[in-house]
Fold this protein.
Amino acid sequence: MERQPAGYSPQPYDQLATGYRQVGQEDAARLIAIHKQRRRRRTLNPAGKLLNWLLYLTVGYGYRTWLAALWLLALLALGAAIFDHAYPSHMTAMSKPAPGFHAVIYTFDVLVPIIDLGQQKAWVPTGSALYWSWLFSGAGWVLTTAVAAGLSGVLKRN
């Protein structure tokens, strides 16, 4: 039988969450489940701790999948400010005549990979704006996948 590291046992958390669910207190049961995962983090190796922390921040371990949508909104605001500042010196039009540059729409186009608004194809970032676009693109893939999974119930936990 595999032993748990000293100080962590999931069973009490599971029993308490089950008790709360039996009396209809789903919010309290979710909080207990989240606390269980946070407590478990102490037993993980550094890579596991990083992944565990990332899951907590982005989707609340599957109990708060709406957090991914909030992160997308925050990144949309940040990206709009960054790309607005980068235009016109660090944004190059791909064709003549190019559609007008809109920082919010460009950021949304970079963040949400399943929607093509034409801004990302029409404008190429250079300099630091290029690195920001890569960061937003990667974050967008992760977060939109989490939002889609949360909406479909794949990530949602009871």
Observations:
- The helical segments are 10-22, 26-40, 46-59, 66-86, 103-111, 119-122, 128-152.
- The mean pLDDT is 86.
- The first strand starts at residue 91 and ends at 93.
